[in-house]
Design a protein that fits this description.
This protein is an alpha/beta fold. The protein contains 19 helices and 26 strands. Helix 10 packs antiparallel against helix 17, helix 14 packs antiparallel against helix 15 and helix 15 packs parallel to helix 19. The structure holds fructose -6-phosphate. The site of fructose -6-phosphate has 15 residues, from helix 10 and helix 17.
Length: 608
């Protein structure tokens, strides 16, 4: 995720900015840059890759004079990682400079309007519209120009701004993306995250949405969008640096579990305009979408599990036959693929060797490839015909959480989009699903608020050896992911079964005390899954059910019940997996496992 640092004070700004950016490296980034006002002009240095590249371009900041500046680490969303796309961005006169975290959803529309008025854009980023809009509205007063600009942009932002006409201040603003102010004797800071400034001060102000900040060397002023002053509390931070990097969480995995509402919002919201899904990323005409004969989904691990959910939704919404393949199997099979096949390639890292090779094979056989990828500019993103980014931000923990849920949400968007075009998803269902899709982030928030209850149950079961997850339909797909989460981080043996398969062999493994976790969110199949729960309970198993909040009757056939908010039946996979991620996490912590770096596993599997 991108990082912001800004400073105005008594000391040379650039070394402080570079030091702050280094503290934000753990968040992941692919380019970095700084801009400093030296009293006469804004000097900017940017570099693709590591902060060391940036440091060597400015002699560790020494070659940039001046005591006010802004810096940024960029995780690419719009436009590849490159020197040009790195932040800061400037207006043509080089009098204004901006760093930005977040996504400007209406940037294309704004860009077109500005281009008609003669503005030229140098980068592919959404951020550049902010600096150009600021320039457009600037009439000698940056605060008024900023308000005008913010009233026109849609989406999320935290901003740091330098104005060459103002040697006394730097500026900042925020909406739906974190930003804090740091206060010290030798100057004031703005940052996207506390670690960036913790070395210099422990006094911070946490900014709320729609707040605008003017920082001088010895004052902090905060305004609302009507430019009326706002009073804020100054907090003292007592975290050490490693707790600060994890946002106060003990592990990155827990932090990333909690980032899911935001990640899903970032994935979905920019793609919905006026109650319609806009998937410009799938560059097929409506006729081509109608003519598709089948879909092959190809992926590994959790991404494959996301694909398993996708199969149900694509078949239901778009009535298109869909097969899901493990990439390592697909590449060595002799798949029936042709020009009528859409191959959906799913990968968080975009670098997984098997997935990459399978995509090549699908292409060679004539399929159109559509990649769902998190890492912008990664190999799979570059080599696929089309790419849809999940915009989950970087994942540090080896076990994926937000990577998986945003992949599933991307497939929801794709299935509904294709269903609408193919005429297989009635308008009423489309509207209902869209409404429910947008509610998923807040429903996840409500599940997360119940985490102590899950911790209590997990602690009770942390000594167990075997766990079975069961489910039917989409619940089976979610069970595959839930089971993988548990085994990979807690080293507890765990397997997922289609509940109807129990009788065909697996039930012989059930003995007194075995834990069976039953995902039971599909209303039309409640009766069936409850029968399976009764069967395993009769053989001594403990049953924990994950079900919808209105299904209290499940308590009669389970020992523990965890509830998720009611949603559309296709969307439960994103909700039911959350308590399972938490369960896996708490079991692993209780067992003393290295949650963020489980043994023998790597985040990016770049070899076969
Ligand atoms: C499990 C996990 C892995 C990945 C798999 C594919 O928590 O993270 O199973 O899902 O290695 O990785 P990507 O999505 O990067 O292709």
């Amino acid at each position: 995720m991108c990082g912001i640092v800004g400073y105005i004070g008594k000391d040379q700004a650039a070394p402080i900015l570079l030091d702050g950016l280094t503290k934000l490296e753990y968040r992941g980034y692919d380019s970095a840059g700084v801009a400093v006002f030296d009293g006469e002009a804004i000097k900017m240095v940017k570099a693709k890759g590591k902060i060391d590249n940036l440091k060597s371009r400015c002699n560790n900041g020494e070659s940039l004079k001046g005591t006010q500046g802004i810096g940024h680490t960029r995780w690419a969303t719009h436009g590849e990682p490159s020197d040009l796309n790195a932040h800061p961005h400037m207006n043509a006169k080089e009098t204004l400079s901006v760093v930005h975290n977040g996504i400007i959803e209406n940037f294309l529309e704004l860009k077109e309007k500005l281009q008609k008025r003669g503005y030229t854009f140098l980068s592919d980023t959404d951020t550049e519209v902010i600096v150009q809009l600021l320039d457009f509205y600037y009439k000698g007063d940056i605060l008024s120009a900023l308000v005008e600009t913010l009233r026109r942009v849609e989406g999320s932002y935290s901003l740091g701004i330098l104005d060459a006409d103002d040697s006394e201040h730097i500026y900042a603003a925020k909406k739906d993306s974190p930003l804090i102010i740091g206060i010290s004797e030798s100057g004031n800071f703005v940052a996207s995250d506390i670690p960036a400034i913790l070395k210099y001060t422990d006094k911070v102000i946490i900014l709320e949405d729609n707040e605008i900040v003017r920082l001088s060397r010895d004052s902090v002023e905060i305004f609302n969008m009507d430019l009326e002053p706002v009073d804020k509390e100054i907090m003292t931070i007592d975290w050490d640096i490693s707790a600060a990097e994890k946002g106060g969480y003990e592990h990155f995995m827990m932090k990333e579990i909690h980032e899911q509402p935001k990640a899903i919002r970032d994935c979905i919201s920019p793609r919905i305009k006026d109650s319609e899904i806009m998937l410009h990323e799938l560059r097929l005409t409506e006729d081509e979408i109608k003519d598709l004969k089948k879909v092959n989904i190809i992926a590994c691990g959790s991404a494959y599990h996301a694909g398993c959910v996708g199969k149900y939704v694509l078949e239901e919404c778009a009535r298109i036959p869909t097969e899901v393949f493990l990439a390592s199997e697909f590449r060595y099979s002799d798949p029936v693929v042709d020009e009528g096949t859409l191959a959906i390639i799913i990968s968080q890292s975009g670098e997984t060797a098997d997935t990459k090779a399978a995509m090549k094979e699908a292409k060679r056989l004539g399929a159109r490839t559509f990649a769902i990828v998190n890492a912008v500019g990664s190999s799979i993103a570059r080599e696929s015909d089309d790419v849809m980014y999940t915009w989950a931000g970087p994942e540090i923990a080896v076990a994926t959480t937000k990577g998986y849920t945003t992949q599933v949400c991307s497939l929801y968007l794709l299935a509904m989009y294709m269903g609408k075009i193919r005429g297989t998803l009635p308008d009423e269902s489309y509207a209902e699903m869209l409404k429910e899709l947008l509610l998923l982030p807040e429903k996840i928030e409500s599940i997360l608020s119940e985490k102590e209850h899950i911790q209590y149950i997990a602690n009770r079961f942390s000594g167990l050896k075997d766990v079975f997850f069961i489910g039917r339909n989409i619940d089976y797909s979610a069970a595959l992911e839930a089971s993988l989460k548990l085994k990979e981080i807690s080293y507890v043996h765990s397997d997922a079964y289609a509940a109807g398969e129990l009788k065909h062999g697996t039930i012989s493994l059930i003995e007194k005390g075995t834990l069976v976790i039953s995902l039971a969110t599909q209303e039309k199949l409640y009766g069936k899954i409850v029968s399976n729960m009764i069967e395993v309970r009769a053989r001594g198993a403990f049953v924990m059910a994950v079900t919808n909040e209105d299904n209290k009757a499940i308590e009669e056939s389970s020992d523990y019940a965890l509830y998720i908010p009611k949603t559309h039946h296709s969307f439960t996979a994103v909700l039911s997996v959350i308590p399972c991620q938490l369960f896996a996490y708490y079991v692993a912590v209780e067992k003393g496992c290295d949650v963020d770096k489980p043994r023998n596993l790597a985040k990016s599997v770049t070899v076969e």
